[in-house]
Write a structure and sequence with these properties.
This protein has three domains: 3-243, 4-Layer Sandwich (Glutamine Phosphoribosylpyrophosphate, subunit 1, domain 1); 248-451, 3-Layer(aba) Sandwich (Rossmann fold), CATH 3.40.50.10490; 453-598, Glucose-6-phosphate isomerase like protein, domain 1 (Rossmann fold, 3-Layer(aba) Sandwich), CATH 3.40.50. It is α/β, with parallel strands linked by helices. The protein is 36% helix and 23% strand. The protein binds 6-O-phosphono-alpha-D-glucopyranose. 6-O-phosphono-alpha-D-glucopyranose binds at residues 303-306, 350-352, 355, 358, 401-403, 604, 606-608.
Length: 611
Amino acid sequence: MCGIVGYIGDKKAFPIIINGLKRLEYRGYDSAGIALVNEETLTYKCKGKVSDLENFVKGKNINGNIGMGHTRWATHGEPNDVNAHPQISQNGYFTIIHNGIIENYSRLKKKLIDRGYKFESDTDTEVLANLIEYIYLKGKVNAEIAVRLALTKVIGAYGLVITCKEEKDKIIAARKGSPLVIGVGKGEYFLASDATPIVEHTKSVIYLNDDDVAILKKDELILKTISNNRLTPKIQKIDLEIGKIDKNGFEHFMLKEIFEQPRAINDTFRGRVNVDFSTIHLGGLYNVIPKLADAKRIIIIGCGTSWHAGLVGEYLFEDLARIPVEVEYASEFRYRKPIINSDDIIIAISQSGETADTLAAIKLAKEAGATVLGICNVVGSSIPRYTDAGVYTHAGPEIGVASTKAFTAQVTVLTMMALVLAEKRNTLTEKDKLKLIKELTEIPGIIEKILKNSEDYKKIAELYKDASNFLYLGRGYLFPVALEGALKLKEISYIHAEGYPAAEMKHGPIALIDQNMPVVVIATKDKSYEKIVSNIQEVKARNGIVIAVVSEGDTVIKSMADHVLEIPDTYEALSPLTTVIPLQLLSYYIAVMRGCNVDQPRNLAKSVTVE
Ligand code: G6P
């Protein structure tokens, strides 16, 4: 939520910051703004996207070798020009951009009003700017001390970039709860919410930790804690190619990412799965495998699509490894006094590794003494750093706000984990284990085949793009896929959609079915096949429109459904990896035909760093 970029060095800051903001726009696109340090600090900001900001500054002075930029996902105050960042303190001493939430802002604001401060915006960020300025002027301290003292009074989350008009040679950055990365160049430093704006300039980065404050001059970096303890910066090399964060000829990032899934899944199991020896090696879990195999219970936590992957994980762990699993929304788990035992294993799933609710749930579980594992996509993000051990998905940067390749990569990791545990616990025969391992390595090829049929999806999308509601049904392993299909559709096309376990339909959703209601049924051949055929009949008996995802060659469902989307058969445990692809494509084409902004759907953001 909110993307922030900063630059200090000898180059022109404007293009570096604008390009950086474009890479971070997936984090929010309600407004954009930039500040450039000159004799006077130049600040330009407006409601809308980074491209609107570019138009806005045309013909204006954009000089400066030091600057900051922001792309906003609104929390406090509606998206408008005034609430856009940067925010400037009342007397113009401090310019600041912020990602996060200052929870005690109204109390701080009241105190500042009592001391004569007036506010222009509705943002919590302006409160912080004025608080820093107040301390700076009242305490006659330097900018760094003013920032650190102000932050001791703040409750909430922040990634901050700050400049002071009386100390023009430096940028101050601080982090608590919201990510911030420093790029280390030669005689220059970069700052960003994640490494994607930095990677085209330098591969050397420093991930800030909570309570870190960095004071950057073009040739000096001082890192300390809020309470003024000096820290040694840990410079890491990142392995992120610029090509991976471009559209590579696709119309949208989402489509590119859907088509990347064979590669993403392959990269996720490559080097970990050995078909010849029927083994799976997950290096990141090496030390915790015995504990995991003895677990009385696994609790999986996540949000959004990652939670859906967690539901697939429940089926996998219980089916293959016979370990009881509970799957929780991180936001519910953290607030409902969960009973956590020290021998519980918590698995946190997150593409970004920064989701605020998931992070908070992890902290809670760790405090209760549980072992916490992470399944994350973004290397160096917060969740891998807070968890005891984990496995990275190697999906590569996911920019489309609606998650696609991250989901299949997460399910791939969960499948590998379940198979490792099944071996340790002796819950699968050697033959079955080998069959599953072998077929897991064939999944990328199967997805390639499904992706070749995009024309079929376009035709169905054309027919139903104007529907007001969709219902998605699945059973067993395919129930979470139904939820994910419905989420994809509503996220990007704004059509209301619900996912349901097919058998539950008769306890409510069946009342909605009429001749206008498309019902997407995921009905590949598995042990519930006969049952789901009956569910399809129930829909047809009420004149509903059935769009069924079926196994290649299926004739039974073909004779009753309005449309079938045939896909190659797989083992049931692997079917979420393939059946989700038609649903992603269908949502994508419907959203495009409705003229929606697929990569940046309204009101959403990719990395949800507020609770
Ligand atoms: C947002 C995104 C979703 C994502 C969810 C969880 O809602 O739009 O695509 O599934 O956050 O994010 P995470 O990074 O923790 O997987």
